[in-house]
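new request in #modeling-help
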Amino acid sequence: MPSSEASLVPMRPAADPAPQAAVGPAAPVQKTVVRVHELVKEYDGRRVLDGLSFQLQRGHVYSIIGPSGCGKTTLLKSLLGLTPVDSGSIHILGIDVSTVSGAESESVRRRTGVVFQSAALLSSMSVLENVALPLRLHTEFSASMIRRIAEHKLELVGMQDSRDRMPAELSGGMKKRCALARAIVLEPDLLFLDEPTSGADPVTAAVLDELVLGLTRKIGCTAVAVTHEMRTAFRLSHEILMLWRGRIHHQGAPASFIETDDKVINQFVQGRGKGPLSEPWGQNGASEEARRDFQNH
Ligand SMILES: Nc1ncnc2c1ncn2[C@@H]1O[C@H](COP(=O)(O)OP(=O)(O)O)[C@@H](O)[C@H]1O
Ligand SMILES: [Mg+2]
């Protein structure tokens, strides 16, 4: 393995097995927490998600990778019910979120934490108020209890000294920490992160990745990070899913993204300018023929 790739080898300890290690009679029972089946999403007739399917198991950390513009945020918004889909089904925590409404969708929302790409902090609220907001909206806890829980979560992300500051006074990395504290304040079963390290310098990115890993272990949730940063994907994930041309091109352990001859994966992992990823697709310009050829390769 070239030395530039050696630094991408995952840091997880061996005691934390990847899902495919768990086979045979002694394997722990796994539960599917996200099941996506033949999901299609178009914007103004332009297909972004092209019948993609995948499943995620409880307690694991996943990254969904792919080049900018390939549909990662669209997929995440679809999973969160924030954008309507054209067809296919999405089961989150056993509930079909594409058809459900009312109390059931509220229950999924309560059990799901999200860190948006922009952090999405409310600018008129302090750091502490932002973190406390889900508790105020979804629980009947007393004001003092809410404050205690929010302060504790801020401690977990190392932001206790900034609790009275306003979002505008925070650096990008601090905003992400605050958004992370807010996302875990209800101790969710599922944590979604959109580009958790984008815009961060390499050291801040590594610190944020370790923070995310530590927190997911602490609260025992399944985490799904959407990212174009390979380093983040390798550091965080039991499994990586690569999104390309509207489908899951490959799902597997981080090592399978290095030990492969697949041209698409190699181009992305090695960050090369030339290769199939640089070729257009569908209404972006590729012919149907080229697309079929690729899908049959
Ligand atoms: N609300 C929208 N309306 C129209 N096109 C959109 C919208 N959101 C995203 N797109 C387009 O869909 C494609 C996928 O976008 P996105 O999901 O943001 O990709 P990624 O997160 O992988 O960078 C892009 O071509 C983008 O321009
Ligand atoms: Mg995005």
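bot summary: The radius of gyration is 20 Å.
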